[in-house]
Design brief:
Helices cover 23% and strands 30% of the residues. Helix 2 packs antiparallel against helix 3. It has 5 helices and 14 strands. It folds into 2 domains: 59 residues; 164 residues, Distorted Sandwich (Glucose Permease (Domain IIA)). The protein has an 8-stranded antiparallel sheet, with no helix packed on it. It has a 3-stranded antiparallel sheet with strand order 1-14-12. The protein has a 3-stranded antiparallel sheet with strand order 4-10-8, with no helix packed on it. The relative contact order is 0.19. By secondary structure, it is α+β, with helices and mostly antiparallel strands. Strand 6 and strand 7 form a beta hairpin. The longest helix is centred in the first third of the chain and has 17 residues.
Length: 245
Amino acid sequence: MARRPAQPDDREGLAHLVDLFRETVPPLHPKGLPFVVGPAAVAVLGRKHPWISRPAMALAGASALFFRHPSRVPPTGDGLVVAPGDGTIALVDEAIPMPELGLGDKPLPRVSTFLSVFDVHVQRVPISGRVLSVQHTPGKFLSADLPEASSENERTAMTIAAGADASGPRIGVVQIAGLIARRIVCDPAPGDQLTIGDTYGLIRFGSRVDVYFPEGTELKVTVGQRAVGAETILGQLPAVQKSGR
């Protein structure tokens, strides 16, 4: 019997299933492809030897989970600063910013987000604006949840001037390597215009991201809270508060 040609409803149903799959299973960050393809290839080549194929396939699956890159929708509103990554809020305090940020030597409001190996590890732009500086600093690999990790661990610091014309307040965001992290990826360069919520970097494997805010910023998270990158509001800039908007 000849197969019934696909009807429009069939195609719509298939497209709906594909959309559901994409929403449920996040895509892979391009930087993670070698970590998934390599073990998967070993699993295929060693499929006749379970002691090779099973660990290799497990490693490929774990890598795919680690490098997942879900879509996010940032909130709308003037002066909002969103979380640059998924994880647990580890510190909400004031601290002297890293000197490479160029934000002065006085304590500023800071929020630190700790990313475990089970969290999404891509970093998101905390606020729209222009990149003023990007600097990588070699260092130690202490556990990223320790306070001293901010100043002693390997890190990449980026300073963003908020606003389309870069005339707004300056925000510092620092990617910090963790206990087993050995690679920080930060794609933007000075002069680049960034949009809130866009992916800009990646840390592997286990890490922390610090955000330094202008004085007077109203912080909106507490220690122990779970943050969702690009969606959780960390704070609101003081200029917006004063304007009453």
